[in-house]
């Protein structure tokens, strides 16, 4: 048998992120593995492990590349901003999501369809949306102020400020201003992430919407489409997403005639609105990743119907949900403890893909097929390979610049099924790796001649 030759991983050419040290992996002491300071939360939804907390998502992915964003290719970084508009308005300096009016109307239609599914009539839906998506007018209202701030607040109240950024395509000039007071911008200094999490709470404490009224009005009115600004508490504000919508500026008839005669483009503006249909980015963990974070690292709690599951319950639940879970997890645990970053290898017909450091820095080096066998390398195979299917898999792996590896998990002959029902069986499992290469007869003859 020829000895396998180790080939160094292929580094990606363009890397735009820094490397963070992964979660610590320590040897078990008294049956307890090393634990992280922050315990993250996840829940089982349709046999999938989902993480919803943005802080937990960032921690799990940045410290070991665990999971995948459900709306992103890998890193959970989905955003609603349109790239062309972000580039166009980058000189304005408003670090908020920017979308077109057409895309905003799509969100409005999605919100309508969602509320219709809940049994609401068209009159109630239209009234709610008109109250909800109108341009954001913020009054200057501070609960605790000093005497030096009173004059500024009175000026803001009389001016009725509104956040607007104006663009003139004829000369390329752009400016961000607050109508009525150019020196005060309550939203411009907050980034998009801060607005989603903590920034809006700060804004809600110092500003309240103009003409407050109830969000839901069950009483019948003759004019059900009457415009009324909703009143939102600090908690309700924290659940809103503010966006900047690019719209056409309002022109007077004289300005429109002048614009047509001089063949100038219409001015455009950014209007701050609330997003009527928020899209959330969640982190989806594979069953192997979820169990590793619970069992090996102790930095994750997994809930099912709001009840936390123990390690034994998770082992049993995952084994029923995925028939080959025990085998793939043994391989995952082995390679993760050796410093590799294993990911699901379904797209290449394998069980796992092995990355050095992470998918952001290197291409996958190996496609792994995991097999649970006894001491004689016999066992119930999860897939039956013929020479044709094996050759096809090997060719597919070679075409994507990877190597095909068989990971044989050898269990003792005296191990019972009862022992396999607990993750403690990992302590008695031995591992042997086998790298498969295509045999080329001409190359073999040349090597023999050289010898």
Structural write-up:
The protein has 451 residues and is α+β, with helices and mostly antiparallel strands. It is built from 14 helices and 20 strands. The strands form five sheets. A six-stranded mixed β-sheet has the order 3-13-2-1-14-15, with helices on one face. The chain has a five-stranded mixed β-sheet with strand order 4-11-12-6-7. It has a five-stranded mixed β-sheet with strand order 16-17-18-19-20. Helix 9 runs antiparallel to helix 10 (311-321) and helix 9 (287-297) crosses helix 11. The chain is globular. The two termini are 17 Å apart.
Question: What topology does this entry show?
Answer:
Elements: E1 40-45, E2 48-51, H1 54-62, E3 68-69, H2 83-88, E4 98-100, H3 101-117, H4 122-132, E5 138-140, H5 147-159, E6 162-168, E7 173-179, H6 192-206, E8 207-209, E9 212-213, E10 229-230, H7 234-237, E11 242-248, H8 253-261, E12 268-274, E13 283-285, H9 287-297, E14 300-304, E15 307-308, H10 311-321, H11 325-337, E16 340-344, E17 352-356, E18 366-373, H12 387-399, E19 403-410, H13 417-420, E20 430-436, H14 441-450
Parallel strand pairs: 1-14, 4-11, 9-10, 18-19
Antiparallel strand pairs: 1-2, 2-13, 3-13, 5-8, 6-7, 6-12, 11-12, 14-15, 16-17, 17-18, 19-20
Helix pairs in contact: 3-4, 9-10, 9-11
Q: What is the average of the pLDDT values?
A: 74
**Helical percentage:** 25-40%
Poorly predicted spans: 26-36, 138-163, 175-237, 261-265
Biggest beta sheet attributes = 6 strands, mixed
Number of helices: 14
Radius of gyration: 30 Å
What sort of overall outline do the alpha carbons produce when their principal axes are compared? globular
